[in-house]
């Protein structure tokens, strides 16, 4: 009975944490909807007056980006901004032949009058954070725009972001990510779905009420003095962007989020690339929870509500661990439910927590219809997309939970870059990409075992109890079977 009690307690706590997260999302939805009724009265620089146009440095941190480097440089060269007030730093940590090809391309761009330079380092200490910090030492700009190699800002990007720095309290202006290959595959569609939720509900919902948001590592601008005041870039976590964002806001710098400025980017097209990106984001999130929790809780300059949202924000990645616990324990709970009749009231109460799924369904529908429009046809498409997304997201829960646990327990690992492909149609081949990680992780084996485990869960629905089975958890186990099956089979076939 002790073992049964332990299962029930852990299962209940995990469900409660998921429910709290769902309530936070619902609050962000209300914030998001109320923000749409407000008129933006922010101060802005008058760019018709040349004296008000500030000097800007664009930083491009890159590492072995053979397939997208030319595209990146050509795109950045098109940005419409006075050349006498713009410099471009290519922070090149590459270790392959792209160092030379990038140098040659930069030399050609210099001939057009562009102030662009390649900055290389002997070692990659601090990884991306180290490169950004190194470039900052010699940056001429009052403002620092940052783009990863797979981002393609519009020509008017600086003219739509820099003006907001007229308010001297603003330390960061962040823009919304777009997706140039959203419809490439199911994998890119679900990644876009998740990111769209973050860049609408979460970023707008938090920012509109003055809660902490994060610079997303790219497609944003920093005030140089804000970076320095907050303690500069640090490489002790895998998400240096989240780390510096919180340190800056704890020092009372304001962040400005622009939902209407979209910055297109390439999504990972194969599961091994998505796995490495997910691992870095989720481990870095857990590392920042450890690093920032007490700083947030002890700060006297922020409200209790902002602290709650901040803690839940830092715990975002840990939700994968709760989802995995609930999933794994749901099958023992199915047998417990049908074995111990006196626990029926408990299970009646627990059924209430299906409301968490309903909350997520409503929240994400608002996001979806803003992008694709309303109407019955789009709503039906959304239902399919929602359950596909949740199934595959749960399929990633083991992989992401391992990342979270490594982060919480302080296991250090290198910054693993996400391979880029410069591919947008299925007709193009990615298999020759030299940066793809070969071999299959041990994690994949366990994902295959979990697929079989949840197949057993579905079978259990038919055999438990004396009343012809119990199908209450059957849809849940079906989604888990599909999710883990998708992740496992794709990882095997794509040589993750």
How would you describe this structure to a colleague?
The mean pLDDT is 93. Strands 3-2-1-4-6-5-7 form a 7-stranded mixed sheet, with helices on both faces. It is an alpha/beta fold. It contains 17 helices and 7 strands. It has a domain at 33-271: Spore Coat Polysaccharide Biosynthesis Protein SpsA, Chain A (Alpha-Beta Complex), CATH 3.90.550. Helix 1 (2-35) crosses helix 6 (186-207), helix 1 crosses helix 11 (319-339) and helix 1 (2-35) packs parallel to helix 13 (355-372).
Number of helices: 17
Q: In which order are the strands of the major sheet placed?
A: 3-2-1-4-6-5-7
* Spans where pLDDT lies below 50 across 5 or more residues: none
- CATH class group of the domain at 33-271: Alpha Beta
How do the helices and strands follow one another from N- to C-terminus? HEHEHEHEHEHEHHEHHHHHHHHH
Cα distance spanning the termini: 42 Å
Instruction: Enter the CATH topology name of the domain at 33-271.
Output: Spore Coat Polysaccharide Biosynthesis Protein SpsA, Chain A
Helix content: 40-55%
The biggest sheet amounts to: 7 strands, mixed
Provide mean pLDDT, rounded. Answer: 93
Rounded Rg: 24 Å
Please name the CATH architecture of the domain at 33-271. Alpha-Beta Complex
């Amino acid at each position: 009975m002790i073992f049964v009690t332990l299962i029930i307690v852990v299962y209940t706590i995990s469900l409660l944490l998921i429910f709290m997260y769902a309530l936070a999302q619902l609050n962000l939805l209300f914030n998001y909807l109320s923000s749409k009724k407000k008129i933006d009265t922010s101060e802005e620089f008058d760019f018709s007056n040349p004296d008000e146009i500030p000097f800007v440095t664009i930083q491009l941190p890159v590492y072995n980006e053979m397939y997208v480097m030319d595209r990146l440089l050509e795109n950045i060269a098109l940005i419409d901004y006075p050349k006498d007030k713009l410099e471009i730093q290519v922070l090149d940590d590459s270790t392959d032949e792209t160092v030379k090809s990038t140098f040659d391309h930069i030399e050609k761009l210099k001939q057009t009058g562009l102030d662009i330079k390649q900055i290389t380092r002997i070692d990659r200490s601090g990884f991306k954070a180290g490169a950004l910090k190194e470039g900052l030492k010699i940056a001429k700009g009052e403002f620092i725009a940052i783009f990863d190699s797979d981002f393609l800002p519009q020509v008017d990007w600086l003219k739509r972001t820099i003006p907001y720095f007229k308010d001297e309290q603003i330390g960061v202006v962040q823009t919304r990510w777009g997706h140039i290959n959203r419809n490439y595959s199911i994998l890119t569609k679900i990644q876009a779905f998740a990111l769209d939720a973050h860049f609408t509900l979460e970023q707008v919902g938090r920012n509109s009420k003055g809660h902490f948001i994060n610079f997303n590592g790219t497609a944003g601008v920093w005030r140089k003095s804000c970076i320095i005041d907050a303690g500069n870039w640090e490489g002790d976590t895998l998400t240096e962007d989240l780390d510096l964002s919180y340190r800056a806001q704890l020092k009372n710098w304001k962040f400005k989020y622009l939902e209407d400025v979209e910055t297109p980017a390439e999504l990972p097209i194969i599961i091994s690339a998505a796995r490495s990106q997910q691992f870095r984001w989720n481990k870095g999130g857990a590392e920042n929870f450890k690093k920032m929790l007490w700083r947030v809780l002890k700060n006297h300059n922020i409200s209790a509500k902002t602290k709650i949202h901040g803690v839940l924000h830092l715990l975002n990645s840990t939700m994968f661990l709760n989802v995995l616990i609930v999933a794994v324990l749901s099958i023992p709970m199915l047998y417990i439910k049908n074995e111990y009749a006196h626990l029926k009231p408990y299970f009646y109460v627990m059924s209430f927590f299906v409301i968490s799924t309903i909350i997520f369904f409503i929240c994400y529908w608002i996001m979806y219809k803003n992008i694709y429009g309303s109407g019955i046809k789009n709503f039906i498409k959304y239902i399919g997309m929602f359950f596909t997304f949740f199934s595959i997201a749960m399929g990633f829960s083991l992989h992401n939970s391992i990342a979270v646990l490594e982060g919480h327990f302080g296991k250090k690992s290198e910054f693993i870059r996400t391979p880029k492909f410069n591919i947008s149609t299925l007709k193009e081949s990615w298999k020759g990409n030299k940066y793809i990680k070969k071999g299959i992780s041990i994690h994949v084996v366990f994902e295959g075992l979990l697929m079989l485990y949840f197949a057993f869960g579905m079978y259990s629905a038919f055999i438990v109890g004396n009343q012809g089975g119990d199908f209450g958890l059957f849809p849940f186990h079906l989604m888990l079977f599909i999710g883990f099956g998708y992740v496992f089979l794709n990882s095997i076939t794509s040589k993750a």
